[in-house]
Amino acid sequence: MDDLSTIRSEALDAVGKAADLAALDAARVAALGKKGTVTGLMKTLGGMAPEQRKEFGARVNQLKGEIETEIEARKSLLGNAALSARLAAEKIDISLPARPETQGTLHPIGQVMDEVAAIFGEMGFTWAEGPDIEDDWHNFSALNIPPDHPARQMQDTFYLPSRADGTPMVLRTHTSPVQARTMLNKDVQKMLADGGALRIIVPGRTFRIDNDATHTPMFHQVEGLVIDRTTHMGHLKGCLVDFCRAFFEVDDLPLRFRPSYFPFTEPSAEVDIGCSWKGGELKIGAGESWLEILGSGMVHPNVIANCGLDPAVYQGFAFGMGIDRIAMLKYGIPDLRSFFESDLRWLRHYGFSALEGAAR
Ligand code: PHE
């Protein structure tokens, strides 16, 4: 009797103390294995009187069941603990806290494109784009620039190898080819035929062989184009006056429209804004000086015809200005080349916060 309770408490104690699955198995073998203590008790049954054997046998069986249950319970506990320990050990921290010094800034060119788009957006213009690598026809011929025009000279333009079909290719020298691409679009032509008006701005990259403090081989322009049946030079003037005053945030900013020449507009005008220089510092607004900021004019009838529209029916205006240039003027950036040097100190100084600098 005593024997049984000692064996029971020893076996359960060993199971309860087993720290891992190997120790638990050792405890199982010690009690229930071939030479185990409980198995030993079973062996004594043979020499007992039938009555005693029945009674003692039942108790030994019960003990065996009890130990087996405890072993199973301990096994699942140890199994869970082993899994948890593995999970804890294998955990990797995939989070990276956002620190203020890792926040970037918006480049002044992107910022100014957004500001320009917001102002023209309020006037009903939509944003259009075209390829940087342009064919000779869209960049020149469609825009009434004949093959012998000086703008085609090798010195002015980055020519690329011709396409397989012989089409000469260039890095576009202005955003004006997107005028042609848009007017040629069948959906646009249908919209115009239905009495609608075309109003687009085309912000994008442009390329010329130039390199000094105010010219870089790659720069940015924004083109504007309005085509319908009634738009005239008065609309061109009003649109550009409103734009310049909104962009430079000077309500009475004077503008000067100077007669000029572009092959794709007639009449053509270059536009200057008023400014003054005090102590070598530029101030935009009414003053003794003028700054040229854009080219403009009424779209030439030849361009309208080249783009598959009837110049007797359709007319409108176009303009083009340098985004980098108006960014330099508005934000007092002295050297154009610094825009493209990716100097982090410069970007932090002239860059805009993505949240605070949002377009109007
Ligand atoms: N494409 C001209 C340039 O690059 C600008 C311009 C556009 C002038 C549209 C008139 C009309 O200089």
How would you describe this structure to a colleague?
With about 350 residues, the chain is α+β, with helices and mostly antiparallel strands. It has 2 domains: about 1-90; about 110-350, 2-Layer Sandwich (BirA Bifunctional Protein, domain 2), CATH 3.30.930.10. The chain has helices at about 1-15, 20-30, 35-45, 50-90, 110-120, 135-140, 175-185, 185-195, 235-250, 300-305, 325-330, 345-350, and strands at about 125, 135, 160, 170, 200-205, 220-230, 255-260, 265-280, 280-285, 290-300, 315-320. Strands 1, 5, 6, 7, 8, 9, 10 and 11 form an 8-stranded mixed sheet that branches. A 3-stranded antiparallel sheet has the order 2-4-3. A hairpin with a 2-residue loop joins strand 7 and strand 8. Helix 1 (about 1-15) packs antiparallel against helix 2 (about 20-30), helix 1 (about 1-15) packs parallel to helix 4 and helix 5 (about 110-120) crosses helix 11. The radius of gyration is 42 Å and the shape is elongated. It starts with a helix and ends in a 10-residue tail after the last helix. About 30% of the residues are buried. The model has no long low-confidence stretch (mean pLDDT about 90). The structure holds phenylalanine.
